[in-house]
Every structure is written in C-alpha cells, then in structure tokens.
Write a structure and sequence with these properties.
- Helix content is about 70%, strand content about 0%.
- With about 160 residues, the chain is an all-alpha fold.
- Helix 1 (about 10-25) packs antiparallel against helix 2, helix 2 (about 30-40) runs antiparallel to helix 3 (about 45-60) and helix 3 (about 45-60) runs antiparallel to helix 4.
Length: about 160
C-alpha cells in the first residue's frame, strides 16, 4: 500500500535520541516505529535493537500488537552474550509485571513463572557482567521483591518437579 521512506545513515543518531525520548514520554509505539526505520537502514545497530526491544516490552499489557515473541526474536541479534542474557530477563520481568497488572484467575502462577525465569537470566547475566555493572543484580532483587510482596508461588505441580530434580 505505502512504500516507507528510508532513513539516511547520517540521521541515525538523532533518530535514536528521539526514540529514547518517546520511550520516556510513554509513547513506545513511536519509539518502535523509529527503531524499525533505523534498522531498515542499519540492520545491525545494537542501540536500535535494544531500544526496539524495550519499546516492545513497554507495550506489554497495553497493546494487542506488542508480542512477547517479537521481543524475544531480537535477543539473538545482540552481539554481547551478557546483553542477550540481561535482555532475556528484562523481557520476562516485564511480561510478568504486565500479567500482574492484568490480574485474573491463575495469573499469579504465570507471573511467578515469568519472574523466576527472568531471575535465572539475570543470574546468568550477573555471572558475566562487566566490572561495575550490577544491573542484573538490581533486576534480580526487583523480581524477588515482587514475588515476596505479592506472595507469589509456583503451581503445586511445579514445586513437586523442582523437588525431584
């Protein structure tokens, strides 16, 4: 229907600044669009990939268009193994928080599962973190606090499986 207009290489830094600003203004759809334009011009731009991933997760629970799968597909495109683990955790943490906000019967088990899986990724990222970067540790603690504050737990059958391992 429409042919999208290409972004020039020289405009990428300013476009990425705008995308980050839109995220801060709680307009993740705008940030997503900008990042997609950047990635059409520079498919390997790491900052655009991270910002797109975050913009997608900003939309969890708010938009039917924002999918967990779309965000997860971006992770292997990140070059750094630490970043892959860290952002895998971020995706699951944000998914868990979105489920917690939505509520509903049985969602506590799903929230717990997302947060525990996020914590596993944060532990992996923590093990290979650069000196002075405790972001994964901070995120792990945040997940633990949510679980404790809301008294979340695994499904009873998951507890049994964990004990058997």
């Amino acid at each position: 229907m429409f042919e999208l207009k290409p972004l020039s290489v020289g405009a990428i830094p300013a476009a990425l600044e705008k995308a980050m600003r839109y995220r801060l203004l709680n307009e993740p759809g705008e940030a997503e669009s900008i990042c997609r334009d950047v990635l059409r011009t520079d498919p390997d731009n790491q900052q655009a990939l991270v910002t797109l991933l975050l913009a997608l997760t900003d939309q969890f629970g708010k938009s039917h268009g924002a999918g967990l799968g779309q965000a997860k597909e971006l992770v292997p495109r990140l070059h750094d193994k630490h970043d892959q683990a860290y952002y895998s955790g971020i995706i699951l943490e944000r998914r868990g928080k979105a489920l917690l906000q939505q509520g509903g019967h049985g969602s506590g088990f799903e929230v717990y599962g997302c947060l525990r899986e996020a914590m596993t990724w944060f532990e992996e990222a923590e093990a290979m973190r650069p000196a002075g970067n405790d972001s994964a540790l901070l995120r792990w603690n945040a997940c633990a606090r949510i679980i404790m504050r809301h008294k979340l737990a695994a499904r009873p059958e998951e507890k049994v499986e964990m004990q058997l391992e």
